[in-house]
Amino acid sequence: MKGLDTIILGDALETLRDLPQEIVDVTITSPPYNKGEKNKGWLVDKIVYQGATDIKDEKTYQKEQIAVLNEIYRLTKKGGSLFYNHKLRWYRGQMIHPYEWVRQSRWVIRQEIIWHRRIAANLRGWRFWQVDERIFWLYKPRNQSDRVGPELKPRHALLTSVWEIPPERDDRHPNPFPIELPTRCIFSVLDGNKGVVLDPYCGIGTTLVAAVLLGCHFIGIDISPVYVTIARERIRDAEKERDRVQAELSLHKVQKTFEERKREGRWVGRFSPLHKPIVSPQQPLPYSNRDHEER
Ligand SMILES: C[S@@+](CC[C@H](N)C(=O)[O-])C[C@H]1O[C@@H](n2cnc3c(N)ncnc32)[C@H](O)[C@@H]1O
Questions:
Q1: pTM for the structure as a whole
Q2: Are residues 220 and 112 in the same domain?
Q3: The pLDDT of residue 265
Q4: Do residues 180 and 209 make contact, with C-beta atoms less than 8 angstroms apart?
Q5: Which has the higher per-residue pLDDT, 170 or 36?
Q6: Which of 31, 160, 208, 286 is in the most buried spot, having the most CB atoms within 10 Å?
Q7: Domain holding 197: CATH number?
Q8: Which residue's alpha carbon is at the smallest distance from atom 18 of ligand 1?
Q9: Structure confidence at residue 292 (pLDDT)
Q10: In a domain? residue 100
Q11: Where among 237, 253, 269 does a domain terminate?
Q12: CB 17 within 8 A of CB 200
């Protein structure tokens, strides 16, 4: 197909509007968060993009994000997915959760994944240090009766809904993805099949490099010519990043099936010995039976 394996310099919403419908299998993206850029702590002050501001009236911002989500929906194939990374923010003490606008889009919300980043962006004590961001797994149904989609293979599902992946440090961009994150998203939903991967806020191209190394086609968009140039260079040198992608893929492995473990009377919470179970079978569960019944 024409227009694949390209990075477009431009505004995400305008560019998405020009793309044909139902061409994308999976999108992984992280928009600017509308954090404001002043008096928000030392780390936020450092997160200033080349060629774009990150301060908008919140209503305008959310309206634009809904429009972007809906454009991605339009150009996603039926059965396709979008992994939308965002975070909880506070404005004058009021929490703003990305669910507020994500639920207003056309997508079916399949899951809210916690991205446990291990480090906090702001070390003041107004709240417990915030070490998480959110990743919404959004799904475009195949038909009217499909609200759930096909099951993930156990080798992917075992990675659980909490992803402990440290943030990336790279002098070329204030907050690029660690390459493990888009790798996990693409590999989990495509399960090794080839497809078309989109990132409409691609920054220095991490999602696109992951796509290339997984044998997929890509489309990237970013408003900064500086980041687009770096992204193109990274794609040319993608092989240099293969080891990290490979290390992520090696986590998608079922040691023993659920049935085998159950038969042996073993712990069945997680399959891979690479992960320590959250609770061992000897420890009490972190909730009482009563809590459990009330869910
Ligand atoms: C959170 S960063 C994404 C980083 C990316 N995931 C990576 O790994 O490099 C958000 C990106 O959105 C870009 N951006 C800001 N406003 C934009 C707009 N209106 N259209 C397209 N890109 C925009 C910024 O230049 C920045 O690179």
A1: 0.87
A2: yes
A3: 82
A4: no
A5: 170
A6: 208
A7: 3.40.50.150
A8: 11
A9: 33
A10: yes
A11: 253
A12: no
Same domain for 212 and 226, yes or no, is yes
Report whether pLDDT(5) > 50.
Answer: yes
Residues spanned by the domain of 273? 256-295
- Note the Cα 156 to chain centre separation in Å: 15
pLDDT computed for residue 259 by the predictor: 77
Number of Cβ within a 10 Å radius of residue 88: 15
Judgement on whether residues 127 and 114 belong to the same structural domain of the protein: yes
Question: Which residue has better confidence, 195 or 274?
Answer: 195
Q: How many domains does the chain have?
A: 2
Cα-trace Rg, the chain:
20
pLDDT for 37: 53
Q: Which of 257, 259, 255, 258 is nearest to 272 (CA)?
A: 255
Q: What distance in Å separates the CA atoms of residue 38 and residue 225, rounded to the nearest whole number?
A: 24
Q: Is residue 1 part of a domain?
A: no
- The lowest-confidence range among 34-38, 165-169, 198-202 is 34-38
Could you tell me the strand order of the sheet in which 24-29 lies?
Answer: 6-9, 217-222, 196-199, 24-29, 76-86, 132-139, 108-116, 162-164
Residues 169 and 280 in one domain: no
- Give the distance (Å) from ligand 1 centre to CA of residue 189: 23
Euclidean distance between CA atoms 295 and 183, whole angstroms = 33
Closest C-alpha to 69, from 59, 54, 84: 84
- Position 275 scores a pLDDT of 52
The size of the chain, in residues, is: 295
Is there a single domain that holds both residue 142 and residue 260? no
Q: How far is the CA of 254 from the centre of ligand 1 (A)?
A: 35
The pLDDT-based confidence of 122 (bands split at 50, 70, 90) is confident
DSSP state of 240: G
Q: What is the pLDDT of residue 123?
A: 84
Q: List residues bridging with 90 in a β-sheet.
A: 95
Average pLDDT across the chain, whole number: 88
Does any domain span residue 215? yes
Q: What is the DSSP letter of 262?
A: H
Ligand 1 pocket, residues with Cβ under 6 angstroms:
11-12, 30-32, 49, 52, 173, 175-177, 201-204, 206, 221-224, 227
